[in-house]
Amino acid sequence: MNLDSSVIKSWVPSWFMRIVIFLVILPSLGLFGLSTASGSGASGYYGAEPADVQYSMIVFYAAVASFFALERRFFSFIAIKPYLLISSLLQIITSYICYTTHNYQVLLLFRFIQGMANCASTTICITLIFGQLKTERAREIGYSVFYGMLLCIAQFTTLVTAPLLDAFDFNALYKAVIFLYVPGTVILFFLLNNVRIEKKIPLYQLDWASFLIYAVALCLLGYVLVYGQQYEWFSDPRITYSSIGVIFLLLTHVLRQKGLKRAYLDLSVFKYKKFALGALLIFILYICRGAMGVTTTYLVTILGMDPIHIGYLYTANIAGVILSILISSRMVLMQRPMRLIWIVGFLFLLIFHVWMYNLFVPQADATTYILPLFIQGLGAGTLMTPIILFMISAVPAHLGGTASATGVFFRFAGFCSSIAVINYFSITKQSEHLIRFQEQLSTSNGLATQRISGYKQLLVSRGIAPDQASRLANGLLSKSVHVQTQLRYAMDYYQLISWVIIATILLIALYPAVNRTVINLRGNQPSPASF
């Protein structure tokens, strides 16, 4: 179907349509990034722990990942104008409820509904983008820009929301999203004709059972990975029963799909080795992206930077992403070897991790981290779109939808796994280093006495009374030990990820079939389940 003539009114210029689509998709992407905007602000407002804030984001993500396959039935049945209104109104209403409530359980419920509606609105936008871009070159650039926006959304959200959070409570962000939705949705509504983009399929035999099984399994998987370390894994019955539930539900889901005539997700995509390779690489990429959370924690807790200045610093990362998506899309269009593109991207990430490993120090100037963050953006932007396009091009066209939806699962799993690994290093490794430092600073070897004496002399020289200086010296020693344990945990984490990247580069270099996959942007469309 020619979208220009049938869906979009004939008098609308292409450049204006693209701006309007951007206005609609920006708040949709922003809803995902809200939970990362200020973990402490969200925790304080909803009376929850930091892990609870992370889990609210996981619930949103699980809804997007699980609803994608079912959402296509609604998209084909409902005309595009009412479908746009339904999805946008659902997101506005759920955002308003998240704005007004202080109840964490209510927040979780409506974040899930919000994720389902978000999947619908993103489907509309990416389908309009896909129809606007006629040539393979234009489509490759379009998808590079789209997935580049996904890579930038957390940093962009930090940059934009920091001034708001400095003046208002956390819930004001949901109010801002509501106001962002209105103009783009209203304008797009009047620019569209009331037609269906796909052939109308009646809403019978909707596989709600598969959706519910899959959604609950993803929510439980996220629960285990987010709370596992905090609850000491299987020593806590909540984690044990949740893990059993994940295994049971996923097995039930797999057996159900094999028995259905029209599978919710066609698992035959895993028969294609190159698809499995792409799934592994996107999983690894999302684990590597988790390192940015460790960097943010370091900038806040060790260097004492405020969110506004962290947002400014992350503009270097955004610049790296923008530059790299332009270069990587050009390389794909010129049919450069996929192996070369991937190795270059992971080399950028390796440079970032090794460099940051050596930059974790108690005191540093913020400008020191501009170039490393820029390089991290280069690596992520070089990898994201080529890996996703490689995955959907590795399967026949009739499996493109399942390949996209399954790819979202691996992004979800990588995202949750990165949280689990960071929690492990944050809790376990910090404790190990704390014990080690305490042993080194025991009074028996005199090192602690020497440090305290030095702190005391410094404080007395600045006019503080000796008794008060003794108490403050003990506090300074304790703070110094705490800082060192945080630095060591961050260094341990970055060291582990560096070894993972090295192993990934070797896998890519040795895998023989990487360069034999032809990127196909005509038969298969990347997933609108965007995150």
Q: What does the model show?
A:
This protein has 531 residues and is an all-alpha fold. The chain folds into four domains: 1-207, Growth Hormone, Chain: A (Up-down Bundle), CATH 1.20.1250; 208-261; 266-425 and 493-530, MFS general substrate transporter like domains (Growth Hormone, Chain: A, Up-down Bundle); 432-492, no CATH class. It is 77% helix and 0% strand. The chain has 19 helices and no strands. It has helices spanning 3-6, 14-37, 39-46, 50-77, 80-100, 104-132, 136-167, 172-191, 208-227, 237-259, 273-289, 291-301, 307-313, 315-333, 338-359, 370-393, 400-440, 447-461, 466-510. The radius of gyration is 25 Å and the shape is globular. The chain starts with a helix and ends in a 21-residue tail after the last helix.
Jot down its keywords.
531 residues; mainly alpha; Growth Hormone, Chain: A; 4 domains; 19 helices; disordered C terminus; transmembrane
Architecture of the largest domain in CATH?
Answer: Up-down Bundle
What CATH calls the topology of the largest domain is Growth Hormone, Chain: A
Number of strands: 0
Q: What Rg, in angstroms, do the CA atoms define? A: 25 Å
Q: Which CATH class of the largest domain applies here?
A: Mainly Alpha
Gross geometry: globular
How many domains is the backbone divided into? 4
Helix-strand topology string:
HHHHHHHHHHHHHHHHHHH
Q: N- to C-terminal separation?
A: 27 Å
Arithmetic mean pLDDT: 80
Sheet having the most strands:
none
Which structural category do the helix and sheet elements fall into?
Answer: mainly alpha
Question: How much helix, percentage-wise, in residues?
Answer: over 70%
Task: Please work out how many helical segments DSSP would assign.
Answer: 19
Residue runs with pLDDT of under 50 for 5 or more positions:
523-531
Membrane topology: Multi-pass membrane protein
Transmembrane segments: 12-33, 53-70, 82-102, 108-129, 141-160, 172-192, 204-226, 238-255, 275-300, 312-333, 340-357, 369-396, 408-427, 493-514
GO molecular function: transmembrane transporter activity
Keywords: Membrane, Transmembrane, Transmembrane helix
